[in-house]
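Researcher: Sequence recovery benchmark, item below. Answer with residues only.
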């Protein structure tokens, strides 16, 4: 089964680039140091996001970033500086909407976190830290506790 959960991946490398100018080992010359970053991942629907590449903080075509990485692997040195992976959360604005919806269902504000903890079977201190999937699970659970189907409350 293919994983389609939302995920953001960012990798950053330090590249030391060398080139040969003439024959022999003494003809090897340092050219430059570059910091290359590639970012991509999947959105909430599991669709692949476009890859964004930067070199020294300036956006460049992905093919150029790959060319620099291959050059450094072949004729220089590559050092992985960072490998960050995270699942995007719903954030404050969507959490506020979820709080309002739970309030319209009759749950008091202090009960929202207890409800989320029950629904997700893990401690929840902020609804803003939920993933989209977790927020949907919480909504379904909240409606289900009242014997309703999701979205059956008047706005």
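Model:
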């Amino acid at each position: 089964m293919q994983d389609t959960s939302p995920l953001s991946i960012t990798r950053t490398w330090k590249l030391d680039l060398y080139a040969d100018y003439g024959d022999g080992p003494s003809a090897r010359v340092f050219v430059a140091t570059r910091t290359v970053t590639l970012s991509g991942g999947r959105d909430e629907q599991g669709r692949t996001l476009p890859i964004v590449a930067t070199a020294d903080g300036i956006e460049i075509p992905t093919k150029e970033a790959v060319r620099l990485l291959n050059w450094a692997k072949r004729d220089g040195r590559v050092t992985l500086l960072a490998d960050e992976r995270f699942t995007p959360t719903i954030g404050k604005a969507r959490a506020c909407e979820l709080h309002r919806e739970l309030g319209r269902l009759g749950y008091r504000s202090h009960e929202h976190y207890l409800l989320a903890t029950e629904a997700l079977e893990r401690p929840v201190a902020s609804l803003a830290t939920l993933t989209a999937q977790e927020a949907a699970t919480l909504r379904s659970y909240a409606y289900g506790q009242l014997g309703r189907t999701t979205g059956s409350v008047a706005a």
